[in-house]
From TrEMBL:
One of its GO terms (biological process) is proteolysis. Gene3D superfamilies: Acid Proteases. Belongs to the peptidase A1 family. InterPro entries: Aspartic_peptidase_A1, Aspartic_peptidase_AS, Pepsin-like_dom, PEPTIDASE_A1, Peptidase_aspartic_dom_sf. Keywords: Aspartyl protease, Hydrolase, Protease. One of its GO terms (molecular function) is aspartic-type endopeptidase activity. The keyword Membrane does not apply. Residues 9-308 form the Peptidase A1 domain. This is Acid protease. PANTHER family: BETA-SITE APP-CLEAVING ENZYME, ISOFORM A-RELATED. The active site is at 27, 206.
Length: 308
């Protein structure tokens, strides 16, 4: 995988009998695969999928509308086609060919997004998401995939609970999925040192979200445990909080399955609010109408994550 400014991690995927190649963002927070289509006027920056070039492409007659947490949308038509990733191929995979995109999709380096959450979350009416298709077609030895988002050796490994980036003898801590739509698990608490401002909730493990997101009241309680923190000005960073750059928190932890996962302080600190400001911005922010937490890349960069 390649990091794009530590905002997202992407890799090459081939689609169709003619192996049309695209740069794809891999997202455990959604379940559908879409790419820019040739009929998309807002997709000029991207490589575009042309189903007429693929002898394995089948038009389903279905349309789709996908909406994401940052407000971005993609609309288009659904095809079934062969999809390949790192030498693993599945046939009859639903591929959304976008005829319209907005928001970050128009500016991101990626040509599309591959959802890797559960099939029940898919909005497509036909077919099975890519990794589940690999499983049903016996293209992988195990129904497991793993991410390593750390440093220059970031990677996605398919088909094994022992990915090569896992150190020999490394202990793996498993958490049960509480609701098989997202990769949602129990979040026992969020702590800052000895303070425990958040208890007994759930969290979605989401490679498609850059930061860590929580409900407004929970995030407010979290930052109340960090001396000198305050809501950032809305015109600068709406939903975010600041803290003194001279005293960044070193002991932010998320507890799951009885294990404390300490967030890397360097990943928590997004940098100064403005040039020369004594205040820095935290990587935990609030989102209205949210009743669970989202553990995004700023958290996941500190750990290997395995999805079974």
């Amino acid at each position: 995988l390649t990091s794009y400014r530590d905002l997202l991690w992407y890799g090459p995927v081939q689609v169709g009998s003619d192996k049309q190649e695209f740069l794809i963002d891999f997202d455990t927070g959604s379940s559908d695969f879409f790419i820019a289509g040739t009929a998309c006027p807002s997709c000029a920056k991207h490589a575009t999928y042309d189903p007429s070039r693929s002898t394995s492409a089948v038009a389903t007659g279905d349309t789709f509308e996908l909406k994401y947490g940052d407000g971005s949308q993609a609309l288009g038509s659904v095809y079934l086609d062969t999809v390949s990733l790192s030498g693993l191929s599945a046939t009859g995979v639903p591929v959304g060919s976008a005829t319209f995109e907005n928001g970050s999709f128009t500016t991101d380096i990626c040509d599309g997004l591959m959802g890797m959450a559960f099939p029940a979350l898919s909005v497509y009416e036909t077919g099975t998401p890519f990794f589940n298709a690999l499983m049903s077609q016996h293209a992988v030895a195990e129904g497991v995939f793993a991410f390593n988002l750390a440093g220059e050796n970031a990677s996605l490994h398919l088909g094994s609970a022992q990915p090569p980036f896992l150190a020999p003898g490394a202990q793996v801590f498993w958490n049960d999925v509480t609701r098989p739509l997202y990769w949602e698990i129990g979040l026992q608490q969020v702590s800052v040192g000895a303070a425990v401002p958040v208890r007994n909730t759930t969290a979605i493990v989401d490679t498609g979200t850059t930061l860590v997101v929580g409900p407004p009241s929970a995030v407010a309680a979290f930052y109340a445990s960090i001396p000198g923190s305050a809501p950032a000005p809305k015109d600068v960073a709406d939903g975010f909080y600041t803290f003194p750059c001279s005293a960044p928190p070193q002991d932010v932890a998320f507890t799951m399955g009885g294990v404390d996962y300490l967030m890397d302080p360097g990943n928590f600190n997004l940098g100064r609010l403005e040039q020369g400001s004594p205040l820095c911005v935290g990587a935990v922010y609030q989102q209205s109408r949210l009743n669970f937490w989202i553990l995004g890349d700023a958290f996941l960069r500190g750990f290997a994550s395995i999805f079974d």
